[in-house]
Amino acid sequence: DELLLVQRGRESGFALGDQQFAQILENIKSSNNLQDDAKFQEALKQEGLTMAALRRNLERQMLVNQVQRAEILDKISITDEEARAYYDAHRAEFTSPSEVTLREILLEVKGTDRGVNVAEDDAARDQAQEIRKRLLSGEPFPRLAGEYSAAASKANGGLIGPLNSGELAPALRDLLAKMQVGDIMEPIRTQRGYQLLKLESRTEAKLRSFEEARGDIGNKIGEQKLRGEREKYLDRLRAQATIT
């Protein structure tokens, strides 16, 4: 397939000029931090390439891309009817999920080989309740998270998220669904201890309009058509070529 496309590109007069090659080379050096010529030559050596081989490889890629663009891509068109049919059949692709942002305070209860110390567990639960009262009375969540939380999020004021609501544990998702933004949940017993959660923000699932999604729809349909048209085009090149 590649040989057929490369040959077609040469027959069409496509070629990688010196100036174009120099520009591509400069882009490669810049994007890989290889401005020093010695480093660049060493990188080529590690890849088992010479400058001539690199140019041949780049020219082959360029020929394939130019033939596909001129002979296939430029001839693909997408009607509004096709775009709307795709949109109606794939609405989930254009729907942003519901997300929540939370703040947490974790009061850790360390277990032993014999299990959890009941007194320590009760003390942690009582402390969690007391902290919740302080939060409800207006004390800043980030300050209390920094002071008491054993979770890594304490460094960020207890902030976690945004989180995809659909990826949360069902039990937690159900609890959050009953809360308003700003609510602070009763302490939850987790494997590590007692967790306080505040619903910081919530965004509902949103379907992008057809007009907003039109560009992405065109790309998706174009990719599908490209695969089919490319095979048809290659079949024609095979039929015309002498292959030994």
Order of helices and strands: HHHHHEEHHEHEEEH
Our estimate of the beta-strand percent is 5-15%
Number of strands: 6
Largest sheet: 4 strands, antiparallel
Chain-averaged pLDDT: 89
The strands making up the biggest β-sheet line up spatially as 3-2-5-4
pLDDT under 50 segments (min length 5)?
none
Helical content class: 40-55%
Structural class: alpha+beta
Q: Name the shape in a single word.
A: elongated
Describe this protein's structure.
- With 244 residues, this protein is an alpha+beta fold.
- Helix content is 54%, strand content 14%.
- Strand 4 (188-189) and strand 5 form a beta hairpin.
- Helix 1 packs across helix 4 and helix 5 (80-89) packs across helix 9 (210-240).
- It is elongated.
Question: Can you give me a brief rundown of this structure?
Answer:
By secondary structure, the protein is α+β, with helices and mostly antiparallel strands. It has helices at residues 2-11, 18-31, 37-46, 51-71, 80-89, 118-136, 141-148, 170-177, 210-240, and strands at 95-96, 99-108, 159-164, 188-189, 193-203, 206-207. Strand 4 (188-189) and strand 5 (193-203) form a beta hairpin.
